[in-house]
Amino acid sequence: MNKPLILVTNDDSIVAPGIRTLIDIAKQIGTVIVVAPDSPQSGMGHAITVNNTLQINKISEDGSEVTEYTCSGTPADCVKIAKNEILKQKPDLCLSGINHGSNSSINVIYSGTMSAAVEAGIEGIPSIGFSLADFSWKADFEPIKDYAKKIIEEVLNKGLPQNVVLNVNFPKLKKEEIKGIKICRQANAKYEEKFDKRISPFGKEYYWLSGEFVNNDKGEDTDEWALKNGYISIVPVQFDLTAHHAIQQLNTWNL
Amino acid sequence: MNKPLILVTNDDSIVAPGIRTLIDIAKQIGTVIVVAPDSPQSGMGHAITVNNTLQINKISEDGSEVTEYTCSGTPADCVKIAKNEILKQKPDLCLSGINHGSNSSINVIYSGTMSAAVEAGIEGIPSIGFSLADFSWKADFEPIKDYAKKIIEEVLNKGLPQNVVLNVNFPKLKKEEIKGIKICRQANAKYEEKFDKRISPFGKEYYWLSGEFVNNDKGEDTDEWALKNGYISIVPVQFDLTAHHAIQQLNTWNL
User: Which of B239, B130, B156 is nearest to A246 (CA)?
Assistant: First the structure.
């Protein structure tokens, strides 16, 4: 294979240490183009910009090793505009992240990181979302660099199953503490939300969404189990949301 | 069953004719509370508000038949804050829509309407998203009212399979032209994006996302087939995104 063309994006914005790490890894493997949000987009899910305009700005110098653009839109917008307006072709691979914070279990649904990966998958581009279970801006990405590189190379070598992208989550551990990589299913867990009610300086009530992650899924084949037990989790993710197993039951209804 | 407590929301905002229609239908079946965005949220996917605050405003008069709140957040935020701060309990049912525009096929991923329905499903609330294949603000919802009511009543009677919500799409047809209801799978279709590049009054380039919906999935079991052939489509939708069929293949990799 010639040097692959790799699109790198994320949801924490182009200046986040996580994407800088991912760019460093991708540079060792292929030709890298970065199109990432100009501001943080956490929790954006699979939002796209339909009622507003998009701006892109090339921020790398001409002749730089890596070409970088910021985009005013969401992570999914970044992938769409990268393919259609910047590259004018499909890249060989799309990498999203490395997110500051886990996107395991139900987080996949809220995640801007994974929405970029899924958008690339919809476009037929092999695609991986990476996340580290550490929300800190100063999270240590060093321990996971070799693992990320290995996963990327294996995707390039083997190819991904059709209409499947990877959701890779790294535990917050030292390199020697990481036990390996497990292929997993998404744990059936969710948030118990709490809203923190406050009063503005002008006397008006407002809320902050917060909450606690609750996992009652004890399965040892889940991403949550893997992460808790020192493994890197890889969940194959699909964008056919049909609950095929429910079709037969619904066909018995009186509609 | 006592009169069910029904939460109604949408993504086109609380003043859209589609939600007003859905409120009218829901009133015939149960006690209705409305918590809907204060501004249009189309294309918001499963976005939630994590880096900003949320405001809610009660807009109905005390003693009104239906209690209505606007929320400054996304459709998923509306469901979270309705359950946790307004109702302080799970409603018996969540209805989202009726969206002005189809949410069939891959649109389910970008849809704010469906993200509200899915969020309710995650919370364990039986939930249905409704959409009409007509983007017009003046779309005619009359032909579909009886069908929507029938579907809601059947969900209340039969219950939904666990971790499944319904994505209901209505064709843009006269009542006598609608042939019936089909349980479907999500068609494997996507958008061929185009970006419309323009120049601002200040000389800066900007883009509008547009594009054409392309369906190469000829399956007669798909939502697209049903809608094109005069049927209402119901796709059971799940939020376990695991591509379970891919796990075995990935386990053969050298990781």
Answer: B239
Which residue, A147, A221, A140, is CA-closest to A179? A147
Asked if B243 lies within 8 A of A236 by C-beta distance, the reply is yes
CA atoms within 13 A on the CB side of A47: 30
Residue A50 has pLDDT above 80, yes or no: yes
Give the one of A47, A193, A251 whose C-beta lies nearest to B84's C-beta: A193
* B237 with A253: Cβ contact below 8 A: no
Residues of chain A neighbouring B249 (CB-CB closer than 8 A): 161
CB spacing of A47 vs B50 below 8 angstroms: no
Q: How far apart are CA A94 and CA A97, in angstroms?
A: 10
Whether complex ipTM tops 0.85: yes
Q: Where are the domains of chain A?
A: 5-187+219-250
CA A107, chain centre distance (Å): 10
**Cα distance between residue B37 and residue B124, in whole Å:** 22
Contact B204 A55 (CB under 8 A): yes
Q: What is the pLDDT of residues A118-168, one digit of tens each?
A: 999 999 999 999 999 999 999 999 999 999 999 999 999 999 999 999 999
Q: SS in 3 state form for chain B? A: CCCCEEEEECCCCCCCHHHHHHHHHHHCCCEEEEEEECCCCCCCCCCCCCCCCECEEECCCCCCCCEEEEECCCHHHHHHHHHHHHCCCCCCEEEEEEEECCCCCCHHHHCHHHHHHHHHHHCCCCEEEEEECCCCCCCCCHHHHHHHHHHHHHHHHHCCCCCEEEEEEECCCCHHHCCEEEECECCCEEEEEEEEEEECCCCCEEEEEEEEEEECCCCCCEHHHHHHCCEEEEEEEECCCECHHHHHHHCCCCC
Alpha-carbon distance of A129 to A152, in angstroms, equals 10
**If we measure between CA atoms, which residue out of B1, B216, B6, B4 comes closest to residue B130?**
B6
CATH architecture of A5-187+219-250: 3-Layer(aba) Sandwich (3.40)
> In the CATH scheme, what is the code of domain B5-187+219-241?
3.40.1210.10
Out of A44, A181, A255, the one facing B151 most closely (by C-beta) is A255
| Inter-chain CB proximity A237 and B241 less than 8 Å | yes
Asked if the model's pLDDT at residue B102 lies above 80, the reply is yes
pLDDT of B186-201, one tens digit each? 999 999 989 999 999 9
- Scan residues 9-68 of B and list those with Cβ closer than 8 Å to A: 40, 42-51, 53-56
In this structure, the strands spanning A231-238 and B231-238 are unpaired
**B249 vs A123, A161, A205: nearest CB:** A161
